[in-house]
């Protein structure tokens, strides 16, 4: 023993003893549990509340007027988030996505959101 580090030969030997990939195959009776199964998709539209200024929309509106589209009098920018989850229970997916919106996806002070569940 001692303060010496292991040399490259030792590392090389360790790599040579690697057993390789695990043999493939899943028993037939376990396959349904492993498959992705049915999935549901939720589309969340997040909009800034009307009483909250939309600086990005105002900037786009001014740029459109500068480009010759003088008839444009207002622009509001919204976001769309698509969430895909396993399962077929619409109520569970709706509840889970609502929680995601309230906790992270939307700012409850400045934004509203609508959730659409797609089959």
Task: From the structure above, extract its key features.
Mth169, Chain: A, 4 helices, extended, 34% helix, 119 residues
Break the fold down into its secondary structure elements and pairings.
Layout: H1 8-16, H2 31-34, E1 39-48, H3 55-66, E2 79-86, H4 90-105, E3 111-118
Antiparallel strand pairs: 1-2, 1-3
Quick gist of this model?
The protein is built from 4 helices and 3 strands, in the order ααβαβαβ. The chain has 119 residues and is of the alpha+beta class.
> How many helix segments?
4
Quickly give the CATH architecture of the domain at 36-118: 2-Layer Sandwich
How much of the residues is beta strand, in percent? Answer: 15-25%
What is the CATH domain class of the domain at 36-118? Answer: Alpha Beta
Spans of 5+ residues with little confidence (pLDDT < 50)? Answer: none
Measure the end-to-end span.
64 Å
Helix/strand/pairing category: alpha+beta
| Spatial order of the strands forming the largest sheet | 2-1-3
Number of strands: 3
String of helices and strands: HHEHEHE
**Chain oligomer state:** single chain
CATH-assigned fold name of the domain at 36-118:
Mth169, Chain: A
Main pleated-sheet profile: 3 strands, antiparallel
Apparent shape: extended
């Amino acid at each position: 023993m001692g303060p010496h580090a292991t040399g490259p030969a030792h590392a090389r030997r360790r790599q040579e003893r690697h057993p390789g990939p695990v043999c493939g195959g899943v028993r037939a009776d376990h396959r349904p549990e492993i498959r992705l199964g049915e999935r549901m998709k939720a589309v969340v539209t997040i909009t800034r509340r009307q009483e909250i200024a939309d600086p990005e929309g105002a900037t786009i509106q001014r740029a459109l007027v500068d480009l010759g589209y003088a008839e444009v009098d207002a622009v509001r920018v919204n976001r769309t988030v698509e969430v895909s989850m396993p399962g077929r229970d619409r109520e569970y997916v709706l509840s889970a996505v609502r929680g995601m919106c309230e906790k992270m996806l939307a700012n409850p002070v400045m934004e509203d959101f609508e959730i659409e569940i797609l089959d």
